[in-house]
Structure formats: C-alpha cells, structure tokens
Design brief:
The chain has 547 residues and is mainly β. It contains seven helices and 29 strands. Among the domains are: 182 residues, C8orf32 fold (Roll); 124 residues, Sandwich (Jelly Rolls); 76 residues, Immunoglobulin-like (Sandwich). The strands form eight sheets. Strands 1, 5, 14, 15, 16, 17, 18, 19, 20, 21 and 23 form an eleven-stranded antiparallel β-sheet that branches. The protein starts with 6 loop residues before the first strand and ends in a 7-residue tail after the last strand.
C-alpha cells in the first residue's frame, strides 16, 4: 500500500513528566491492515500491510545525563521492567490495573505474551554447567527485543510474569519436545500455552484444563484448534499434539533470569531512535533460512559534545561505555583524527567485559584521518548470548610526538539494536496520548520527534451488524465498503462475557477465510441454554479490516 508524505511532530521536554497528543489522520494503520504469513508448519506470523510509524527520536540536548527515560503511546511502549509489563497487560486486556481476579490476571498476561510473538527462528539456547541458558529466558529482554521465539522462552516468560503478579506457577517440559506453563487460580492448575497460542477446556466448556487433566483425557487436546485464529484447520495435526502429554515432567533445568529493569539513560549528546523497519540485523541461531524473522532495527546514537582528545588533554587512553535495553546487533564508530606531530599510533578497541580487547582500527594501517569503523563483525549475533553492553577504548600506543598533539573530533558511536515493535510507542489512527517520564534529579532538556505516514488509499469496510445465533450458525448483515472493494474474509470472536475481554475457547476465535457473512461454530463448544457474545470484523480485498 502506498502512503502520503511523512508527517512530523516535535516536542521539547523540561520536566520529569510530560504529556501531549499526536493525531494521526488517514484511514489505515498497523491495526486495521494486519496480514498473516505462514512460517513453520501451521505457525503464522502477523504483520501490517501498512505501518504508519517511521521513527521516534528522543534526544538529550542538555548538559547532564537524563536517567531512566520512558515513552508510551496510549499506555503502551514501556516494557523495560516487570512492573511495567504486568501493568500494561492488566490495562490493555482487563481495562484496569487493580481489583482483578487471579483468573483475569493470568489471562491478561498470557494474552500479552501470546500477541507479542510467533514461533519461528528461535534464537540460540545452550547448556552450560547442566543448565539451559539464554537471554530469552529473561522476560524483559524477550519482550523488548524479540518477536520470534520458542516454546521454552515463552513458557518461562509467562511464568515469570505470573509470579511477579503474585500467582503460583510451574513449567513443564515434555522430553524437550515442548515446554508449557501452568498457573494456579480458583483452587486448581490451568495450562496456558503462549507459544502455540492455545489452551484446552474441560468438558464443561468453561474451565481451562491443567496438564494433568489433559494427560487423563487427551481428547481435550485432540478436539482443540492450535496456533491461533489465522492458522489453517488441521484436525489430524491437532490430534497429534496429544502424544506430547506424558505422565512425567522431565523438568530440564534452566537458568532463572533476574529480570532486572532495563534502564535507558541518555548522556549529553545521546539519542535513542525507535524504528519500525529494519536493516537486516538480528540475533538468531541461523536456522529456518531463508525466512527472516520479523523485527525492527532501532539505534542508540552518541555524539560526544566535545572533542574526545584535544590540546588540553595529556592522557593516553579513553574508555567509552555503551549500554542498551535492547539486544545489540551492530554499530559504527566515526571521528576525525587531527595530528600535529609526526607518526605515532592511535587505536580503537572494543570489549564486552573490559578484560579482552579487540582492535577495530589503528592509524598505521589506515592513514585516512576520517575514521569510519563498523562494529558489526565484532558483535556476534549468531549462536551466542546476545550483547547488551560494550566498551570502546581510544588509546595512543606509540608516540613520536606529545599526546597533546593529537585531537579526535566529531566522535559519534551508532549502536544498532533489535526491537520488538510491540514494545515501542506506536501511533495508531486518531488522537494518541503520549506520556514521557524520566528519573532525573535536576534540570533536563529533551527533544522528542515523531515521524509517521498517513494513507487514505483504502477505506476499511464497515463493521458487520445484526448478528443472530441459531444452532451454532452465526450470521450477520454483510459489511459494506466505501471503495466498493469485495469483502473476502471475516474474523469471528465468541466470548462468554459481554465486554468481549476474555477468550472462551481457541476454536471460537477464528479467521473464516471467506467473504460469506455466516460462520458455523465447530460442534461441541457451545452449551445449550448459555448466553454468548460475539463480534465480527470484515476484511476487504486490499487487506483493510473493519473495527
């Protein structure tokens, strides 16, 4: 889909909290143009056909470091602490942060994790001292940097968030075939699988089953649709999952991540850039090629506000730390070397522990005074733990003249990071409530720039109306489309609550794959005499969904 010229909104911040509104026009955004792509097996990956967000840049223009910078759009975009993640889940799916029943807490957290990931290209896991390790076992890292994940990662993340919300949990591992998480509420265990986007109901069609319930009655698994509403129907594959559920939890040990808050602080001259596109840099285990995972590449840019080395300096080395809340996947060091003396050796090294240093550039091998050094080769992104910090050392190793004869101007360090766009301050159609906050004690001068696109190329269809229910057949008045586009698909949700907040059964949230304004609910899921509530969205031929 084409878009109009990018638009921009600039805000200057001088207080610890700052709120403003950004209004997005047009008719399309990332929510009403969602499209599904098959990946591994029946797994699907959803992405928008039109993404209005281009970038958000937060710059420190002041003279002191701005501590713990946060920015949210409509209450979303800050997932850098367990508190923030749990609060967003409650607001987004329960509509409130307090007064929730344990069941509501469990479902809200499960839905947030389920909606943030798809199963494919899972980054590397490895054994060390008898324990499975990965930065993806840290729920904060997982939710901030990655949109692709594996079953163990999502199971452990969901369990960690449940625990933080005060719920009792346990994680099952069936002989390394599959990992799942359970939560305790209403006096029993309940299994919610964020990786396969599934849970199983007991025979009452209301109560979410436990693993042990499924082991006793594997038909609970066999009758259930897996992998979410966009996945194709495959009863044979659904039935096969029943074989995974064994009487014994193999209990593979895994490293319990600390889940420390990921702090973003900006030094004078430093900026963070949220992006919604990518330049092809991501952390991965190298499997499942050629399908590339869905991700965004943002940047942390540090422009030193003064020369790193000049005539008043007499030291022979300088170390610059770089820390990121997101997985680091590349970067670039630039500067201009001015030497008044003859000869000598200036070198730029990188380290990830301040012990082992690797040379990136030296002035004897590269005589060009305009330094431009890629960090990509030094920052490993395959089959290794992800990096969230590094140090650059600029040093004089050999002198023919005095140290003060060297000057290094225009130093800039660009760090490429991998972002999960679900954890970014994304704009949507209409008025967006933006909230900035930091923990700086003292004055600050921060500039925030939003850049986005607007498109009116396609008008979404109207929401289907006049729904009726008879013998499991849902029918509705066909949606109309202002552009005259054909209606080609519908998204049906059947719920047990009038607010339509809580999923009832995985088989009762489906994309029909048809423009026909009717849908036959799968047999056996609707109880006689019960009242159900349902909602339908329509999609036109060019990919726009109704509300």
């Amino acid at each position: 889909m084409s878009a109009e010229v990018a638009k921009e909104h600039v805000e200057t911040v001088s207080a610890a909290s700052h709120a403003y509104v950004v209004e997005v026009g047009g008719k399309l955004d990332g929510q009403n143009t969602i499209a599904s792509q098959p990946v591994a097996g029946r797994n699907t990956m959803e992405r928008p056909l039109f993404e209005p967000n281009v970038e958000v840049r937060i710059e420190n223009l002041g003279d002191t470091t701005v501590e713990n910078v946060r920015l949210t759009a409509n209450g979303r975009g800050n997932r850098r602490s367990l508190d923030a993640i749990v609060s967003e889940a409650f607001r987004r799916y329960a509509g409130k942060e307090t007064g929730l029943a344990d069941r509501e807490k469990a479902l809200a957290i499960w839905r947030l994790v389920r909606d943030a990931f798809y199963h494919f290209n899972a980054p590397e896991l490895w054994f060390e001292d008898g324990t499975v390790k990965s930065d993806l076992y840290d729920a904060i890292h997982l939710l901030n940097s990655y949109e692709n994940s594996g079953c163990s990662c999502t199971a452990i993340a969901v369990a960690r968030l449940w625990e933080h919300a005060g719920l009792k949990t346990r994680v099952w591992n069936f002989a390394t075939v599959h990992w799942i998480s359970e939560v305790w509420y209403d006096g029993a265990w309940h299994m919610l699988d964020a990786d396969m986007r599934v849970f199983y109901l007991q025979r009452d069609n209301k109560t979410i089953a436990s693993v042990e319930d499924c082991i006793r009655d594997r038909d609970l698994i066999r009758r259930t649709h897996h992998y979410g509403p966009f996945a194709k129907t495959d009863p044979k594959d659904d039935a096969a999952h029943g074989s995974w559920y064994q009487d014994k939890n193999t209990g593979t040990p895994y490293e319990v991540a600390s889940c420390e808050p990921n702090i973003l602080s900006l030094r004078p001259g430093e900026a963070v850039v949220y992006r919604w596109d990518n330049i092809g840099k991501f952390h991965d285990n190298g499997r499942h090629v050629p399908t590339r995972p869905k991700f965004a590449n943002g940047k942390i840019i540090y422009r030193l506000p003064r020369p790193l080395m000049h005539e008043k300096h007499t030291w022979d080395s300088h170390i610059i730390p770089v820390t990121s809340p997101w997985c680091i996947v590349g970067g670039r060091f630039t500067g201009k070397l001015v030497s008044a003396g003859k000869g000598g050796l200036l070198r730029v090294d990188i380290s990830f522990d301040r012990k082992d240093w690797r040379c990136l550039w030296d002035s004897q091998q590269d005589k060009d005074p305009n330094i431009a050094v890629s960090l990509d080769d030094a920052i490993a992104t395959k089959r290794t733990n992800a990096k969230y910090q590094y140090w650059l050392k600029v040093q004089i190793l050999k002198l023919v003249s005095k140290p003060e004869d060297y000057r290094l101007d225009d130093v800039c360090i660009e760090t490429d990071v991998e972002m999960n766009v679900h954890a970014s301050p994304s704009l949507t159609l209409g008025k967006n409530q933006i909230a900035y906050a930091d923990d700086t004690q003292g004055p600050r001068r921060v500039r925030i720039t939003h850049v986005w696109r607007e498109s009116s190329e396609n008008t979404p269809p109207s929401t289907p109306t006049d729904g009726r229910h008879a013998d499991g057949v849902l029918s509705w008045r066909g949606a109309t489309d202002a552009d005259g586009d054909e209606i080609v698909d519908h998204w049906v949700e059947v719920r047990g609550d009038a607010d339509l907040r809580w999923p009832l059964a995985c088989d009762l949230e489906r994309v029909t794959g048809s423009g026909d304004p009717r849908w036959q609910a799968p047999p056996g899921w609707l109880n006689p005499g019960e009242t159900y509530f349902w909602h339908v969205r329509a999609k036109d031929k060019r990919g726009a969904w109704s509300d």
